[in-house]
Amino acid sequence: MNRLNKKQKMIIIAISIIAILSFGYYIYGKEGSFAAGESLEIESIEKPEEITNEGSEKENIKVHISGAVNTEGLIELEENSRVADAIEKAGGVKENAYMEEVNLAYVLEDGMKIRIPTKEEVQAQKNQNAQSIENSNNETEQKYITNVKTNYQSTNSVSAKTSTEQKNKTTSSKININTANQTELETLPGIGTTTALKIINHRKESGKFKAIEDIKKVSGIGDAKFNSIKELISI
Questions:
Q1: Are 75 and 63 in contact (CB under 8 A)?
Q2: Predicted confidence (pLDDT) per residue in 154-181, tens digit
Q3: Residue 143: CA atoms inside 13 Å, Cβ hemisphere, count?
Q4: Residue-range domains of the chain with CATH
Q5: How far apart are the C-alpha atoms of 159 and 179, rounded to whole Å?
Q6: Are 112 and 88 in contact (CB under 8 A)?
Q7: For residue 68, what are the CA distances in angstroms to 39, 82, 114, 125, 226?
Q8: 115 Cβ partners below 8 Å, 6+ apart?
């Protein structure tokens, strides 16, 4: 018998492998874990029980309600309740309840106190506020009048003082012919050195002048010169 060449050996090996694979596929299709045409059943995975809040209870709060409600006192409400809920729990409001400034939507907290005012209480408060304002205005007006009087008196006092000071100043600004020295006398119009010395000598010899008109007794001072200095001299 002739020996098989290398090519023939390879062909035989390939045929053998194909035959083995075909046999194995056939056996697996018949006896495998599932046959062709059978549906695969997938077991449903049980979902964990959903956590709900149905079993949880809301915390309650306690508040004190008073005033113009039908039932005053301590009441119990659910958390996050509002003023309207408290009023409802208290049996509603009375006829004289003043609700214009009550915030029904306000969220309550544990331990709070709610007071529903009456119309009489609100009116009394308004009257008291009006009286306080009137008293304040009266007090302000009285203070104003007092300040005006004080300022008037102060102004008059200052004016009188100023007038007196001005008068004294005017008087003091005049030349006193009984005490003035030569230099001061020479500041008067028409009074030179010679006349000033005559005035001083007259005082020494005849004494002080009794009136400003007496200065005309000094030689050299006549009516004309006196009229020019009479507003500027004093005794």
A1: yes
A2: 666 655 565 555 555 555 589 999 999 9
A3: 6
A4: 60-120 (3.10.20), 175-234 (1.10.150.320)
A5: 31
A6: no
A7: 77, 17, 11, 16, 98
A8: 65, 66, 67
